[in-house]
Amino acid sequence: MRNLHFGMMAITAIGVTAPLGAQRATSGPQFAVSFPSSRSPAAQDGRLLLLISSDSSAESRFQPADGPETQLVFGVNVDGLRPGQAAIVDGKAFGYPITHLRDVPAGHYRVQALLNRYRGDGHIVKLPPDRGEGQQWNRKPGNFYSTPRWITFDPKKHEAVRLVLDQEIPPLPEPPSTKYVRHERIRSELLSKFWGKDVYLGAHVLLPWGFDEHPDARYPLALSHGHFPDDIGGWREVPPDPALKPDYSARFDLKGYNRIQEEYAYQLFKEWTGPGFPRAIVVEIQHPTPYYDDSYAVNSENNGPYGDAIMKELIPYIEKKYRGIGAGYARITYGGSTGGWEAMAAQVLYPDEFNGAFIACPDPIDFRFYTNFNLYDESNAYFPASKWKQTPRPAHRNYLGQVQATIQETNYHELAIGTLGRSGGQWDIWQAVYSPVGDDGYPKPIYDKVTGAIDKSVADYWREHYDLSYILRRDWSALGPKVRGKLHIYVGDMDNYYLNDAVYLTEDFLKAAKDPPADAEVDYGDRAEHCWNGDHTRANAYSRLRYHQMFLPRIIDQMRKHHPVDADTLSWRY
Question: Which of 475, 446, 311 is closest to 373 using CA atoms?
């Protein structure tokens, strides 16, 4: 890993602002945003976001989205903004889904401003540190925001609307420990050295029933990958709350989905503590970076050596403390979406350290279908090549194929939230994980965020380091014997993000693989959306709540079939 994070340099970015009064007068509407000294006496760096909404159902900061329900967001960078000093959001601000503030129709709107605060720490880059929320800028403790208010907006008026960042998002409470659930946090030597400051890894640990009563038992470890977990996912030790007001899930068109989630979480507790359920240690890790809620659990030039830190520091620590067997045959990994990619990456990049990967709806595992376009052969991420027209590439669909967002729109959403790959969004984290460091200290762009033009040199770097399907093909003579029978991939054939396309290409290789054969499992859910996990008996809304029940029995079966002669296969079976 190259440590490129020391020193100082100027940052050039879209929408860098000057204080009110020092900025040249511009035509069009303006918002002047400041924070009081009572909020902080220190100057602030960050991304200043102006949120405009016609929807009163929630604060404006919670309403930008990729889909058609989105409201408006405009962003500018601020550097050294002092208390009481106003920053201007005007026509130079980049916006989504309307690019320019002057094009917002006149009307009555609820407006709010938020400062996503960056920290430099004397490094080249200025980034938003995670504060226990998993890189959610609208919920990040310490971020400043204004009290929402209604205004009458007229784009023809040039008088600045003044907003004061009078609020601060409070710290999050620590999750409670129970008889079964523990929470761990360790300082990573590897990551601290990379970043030049203390960096910590966290984990939520679900202990098997009978852990205290069987002190001589040593247990397999099930590493459940996914987005930043605030606790063990899908776990509840008390019955569902009968007074819980039912909500509505637009994604699944289900009333009372919050009640369904509580019911399924309590069902896991009952099964976990009942007879016959596999006895294993389940671990869900917290490894956010300044770029996202999750490091993707691999070594990266921009994020640091997270793969090694997890495998060489965090996992051994947990296995030692909680009596894990501590050997590759006794570790299995599983997850969906981001977690699906991570599960496959862990098995492919650390093939001796796992005995199987159960991979649901993985992020692109073959960059010939980077969602739905070929990163190597095509020249533009947003539009297919054509002499006479530009047809936007879709980014999100439903199970009927109806498109809710395009790749250009979702990238413009991210660009409004943060320049230089700092949005905390999906496209930006792929770039942060997979790219080399650019000359400015930030991830080298895989494509121009405004035009979509692909940088082939960066694509070549991605292929050699993170295209999992390519790595399997390239290194099969060495990898094949180590991963034979260990890859289990599941995806819906109508995945919302077109992730099934990369699976098709990977399946072609796994089917054709020889010396040795792959003995892999690849399965598709008919008309199933993201994130289908191989359950043909339940709708996606329900199967996604049963990852532990779905995979833990299969994990134990995998260990019974594949283990060393002298392996411990009995002490944990009670």
Answer: 446
Query: Taking the model in full, what pTM does it have?
Result: 0.92
- Looking at the domain assignment, is residue 251 inside a domain? no
Structural domain boundaries, residue 500? 181-236+270-366+467-561
Return d(Cα 149, Cα 359) in angstroms, integer.
45
Q: How many CB atoms lie within 10 A of CB 369?
A: 21
- How many structural domains is the chain composed of? 3
Whether residue 143 sits in one domain with residue 187: no
| 485 exposure class (CB count in 10 Å sphere: 0-12, 13-18, 19+) | middle
Element (H, E) at 156: none
Q: What is the pLDDT of residues 255-293, one digit of tens each?
A: 999 999 999 999 999 999 999 899 999 999 999 999 999
Rounded to the nearest 5°, which phi and psi values hold at 111? -120, 155
As a whole number of angstroms, the distance between CA 497 and CA 500 comes to 8
pLDDT, tens digit, for every residue of 209-233? 999 999 999 999 999 999 999 999 9
214: helix, strand or coil: coil
Strands (E) located in 23-164 = 31-34, 44-53, 72-81, 87-89, 94-96, 107-118, 144-145, 149-153, 161-164
